[in-house]
Amino acid sequence: MSQELNKIDIDTLTSAVNSGYSAIRLLAKLQPAAGPGSKVFPPSHSEGKYAWEARRVEGGEVVRTVLLDSVQSQANRMEQALKEAYISQRINFPLLAVDFGSHFADIGEITTLDAPHRIADAIFRDSLLGDQKFPDTNIAKAYSAANQRNATALYQYCPHALIFGIWDSTGSAGGLGNKFQRAVVSEIVGIKAEAGVLTSSRLDPLGIKTVDIYAMPDGGWTTDKTLAETDKKGEPVKIRPSEVNHSNIPPTIKKSDKGDEFILGGVTIDYARQTTVLSLPALRRLHFPVNGEVSAQINTAARTVLAALGLAAIVHQLENGYDLRSRCLLIPEGKFNFELVDNYGESKTFSLSASEADALFTAAVTKASGLGLSWNEEKIQLQPTPDLFELVRMSRDTTALTEE
């Protein structure tokens, strides 16, 4: 049973985070931008397959579904949405960054919102803060010692890691490094999905026919067999013009003897469903002592900041739209609301815009700061170690040689 809450304010969010509520949930129904029944293209996974799965949907019906955006991909999109909000100065929160721009302009700056393992990523481990290796800094030592009973250091330097999860598997403790579960989980699934077919064709404006040409030793091609690469018998190696992107390619349907799941021709769906859940019990497990003292009031304030940051990430991602990849643009079926779900399954619905989420987050941060729980407000800038810089350079040189 659902009740109308309309808007959520700082007091309501604080109360929900403190006790009595289990989740903030968003269920969104989406359609292809080209309209119902048009194709969308899921991501391909191992062996080039789509992620097919039988799932139980509303009413108990078991249907064939396909994954359109994974939990990991959704987390990355939310982090990038937060990064855009940070850059545009809509919200401010602690951030670390490694600057590769002076060496590799195309890489530029890698922040804890970009790195796959956030503050625990090897990119930060192998960087310098001034003349000091990052693992030797007080920041890294405090973070490495963090756990659920003392998450203050992560709150102060990388709070989004407490929302999207983190595992310090690259630190000195290896696989025993600290772990924090995801508090925000989201995915997008295509419901009642049917596999499409993969077609290909090319109309050559030069009208080149299928004639013999020859491979060159340097990887090019030639019409002069005396310049051609030769095989073990000393014969020039013949190739087709289509192999070097000349001549027509007649319309074809690509087939596979491994089954339909290997034919990456997109899918048609009844609709796509996005399910996003912010776990309030996951936040309640976190404690934030200040100067060695634990305060229930400060714990609640910090958890409220994290909940507000999670809501901001969700809403900013929604406002960015659902252009998941080439030929996979989705449009919501109308506006949708969040649900605040209590410990007994009852829910209250509320709407939340990006500007409202920003204001809610700012209010939560101000309240926590007023209680003595402050965080680092300036971006911490690191530089790659010479070894990390050299690793990137050598990798690029190797790639360039391989492509020649």
UniProtKB/TrEMBL annotation:
Pfam families found in the cross-reference section: Cas_GSU0053
Protein name: CRISPR-associated Csx4 family protein
